Amino acid sequence: MSTAHPSQTLPTGFHRLRKDQLQYILDNISDYVCLHDLDGKMLAVNWTLQSLSGIADPKQIVGKKITRFMPEKYQAIFKDYINRLLRKGADSGLVSLITQTNVKRVIEYNSLLIYDDQSQPLVVASLARDITDRLKSERELKESEERYRNILKTIEDGYYEVDLAGNIKFCNPSLCRILGYSGTELLEMNYQQVSDPDYANTIFETFNWVFRTREPTKAFDWKLIRKDGFECFVETSVSLIENENKQITGFRGVCRDVTERFEAEKERQSLEAQLFYSQKMEALGTLAGGFAHNFNNILFPLIGYIDMALMDMPADEPHRRQLEKALESANKAKRMIHRVQEYTRNDRGQQIQPVRIPETVNSALRLVKSSLSSRIKLNIEMDKNCPVIMADADQIQQVIVNLCTNANDAIMAEYRSGEITVTVGPVEIQAGNSKPGAALPPGRYAAISVTDSGCGIDPLLVDKVFDPFFTTKAETGKGLGLSLTQRIIKKYEGEIFIDSKRGEGTTVAVYLPEKPEGGS
Questions:
Q1: What is the CA radius of gyration of the chain?
Q2: Is the CB of residue 60 less than 8 Å from the CB of residue 40?
């Protein structure tokens, strides 16, 4: 009798192994070894298989059918197993065995058909291993992963995983919702594509610190750009992703959308600034009004007595020139007091009515042209579809005159030629817009901008130009033009912005909300 198919050759010296040596080898391997005939009767087993069954005496196993230790569903298909062996000479798969203590174990087997000297099927040799614990671990791992994924799908916070190059490798639906991208789109992107460039250094330093220290970080602020172009702010955690060899392969973290908190904080700061400014203006207005009244009382007799003195003084009197200079200075002071009184006066007598900005701006420009230097070219870009606002037309004209006068002075400050461009048109402010005007409520606005090619404003002084009596024009400036302009614009629920670079000119932009005739 042969123990293998005639086509198989046993190693040299294999036949010299004693029976007890073979049994020792079989009993001490971790796999199960079983020899059974074509009816399923077990002819021999190793000790490992005996320990599985819980039967110490092999005589209680040998001679019994293997199907006795199988659940019913496997007993029914045992013949299929034998037929596969007869047809192919070998078979492999999974089967359940029931131990003496009625515990079900899952076995992975590999069976080989052994032939006799006439090449006739004789017996089956099976080598198997218990994979019950492995399958249980795999099932538990799968269930754990499923729970993990379900949690990530349902939490409100965004979750991300990126590799060391910053490519997004995994994200949950909440992150997609925060950024406005689909999961497929994000998995083809790098985190830098959704990050605000101003935060690049902060992000790099944070991730680099986590990489170097291997310590996670929590709750650092990250400004992102949504698919629709709007900004959003997230509070983000970062930790490492490591492989089984403790090598760093990427980063993971959780993002919480805190945009509303940021907007609320900005709104609070804006309201505080407005309150502070209002209180400051009220205090300055009261001070300036009282000063103007008292100083005017002093100037009135002074100018009167100088006039009377000049009336009685001959034209060739040597001191007449000095008195004329004194009167000229007194009249300048009178005009300044008039400007202060104009700044501090209340709004009684103003005529609030629908104002068509293009017509009003053109009227103001006709007034201001004559006062501009002949070396300055005035450009006008007018969109007649500009929204109608509710205001006093004279005050809007005063705004234009003030801005053009300042532009003229900025160019002439260095005694050079230049250009002033006045642009009028509609602007749509949307919620979350990061462009100038973002502090304004969403809606349609009339936008007026005056751009000059003058000397520009020092960045350190830009925030001060709206303060009363602040001026950079030491000889001619009174420091009330821009302050009065801002006061008028704020009164009509608008806003004024300055964009200036030293040596490159200045743009002053005014936004006034659309309020059609009859609107409040």
A1: 46
A2: no
Please say if the pLDDT value at position 57 is more than 80.
no
Judged against a pLDDT cut of 80, whether residue 227 lies above it is answered with yes
**Mean of the pLDDT values across residues 501-507?**
83
Give 20's contacts (C-beta < 8 A, 6+ positions apart).
Answer: none
pTM tops 0.90, yes or no: no
Tokens standing for residue 240: 């490492």
Q: Where are the beta strands (DSSP E) in 357-416?
A: 376-382, 388-391
Give whole-number Cα distances, 133 to 74, 111, 140, in Å.
20, 22, 10
Q: What is the pLDDT of residue 489?
A: 86
φ/ψ of residue 99, rounded to 5: -80, 175
What percent of the chain stands above pLDDT 70?
80
Mean pLDDT of 277-292: 64
Collapse the DSSP code of 54 into the 3-class scheme (helix H, G, I; strand E, B; otherwise coil) and give the result.
Answer: coil
Give CA–CA dist 38/36, Å, rounded: 7
Distance of alpha carbon 94 from alpha carbon 174, whole angstroms: 41
Judge whether residue 225 has pLDDT over 70.
yes
Question: What pLDDT is recorded for position 1?
Answer: 41
- Within 421-496, residue ranges assigned H as helices are 481-491
Nearest to 91 by CA among 107, 113, 69: 113
Distance CA 296, CA 341 (A): 10
pLDDT at 280 over 80: no
Which of 99, 94, 89 lies closest to 68, judged by CA? 99
Query: How many other β-carbons are positioned within 10 Å of the β-carbon of residue 419?
Result: 15
- What residues contact residue 233 under an 8 Å CB cut-off, 6+ apart? 221, 222, 223, 224, 257, 258, 259, 261, 262
Token reading at 20: 């007890």
Q: What is the distance between the alpha carbons of residues 281 and 273, in angstroms, rounded to a whole number?
A: 12
Can you tell me whether residue 167 is helix, strand or coil?
strand
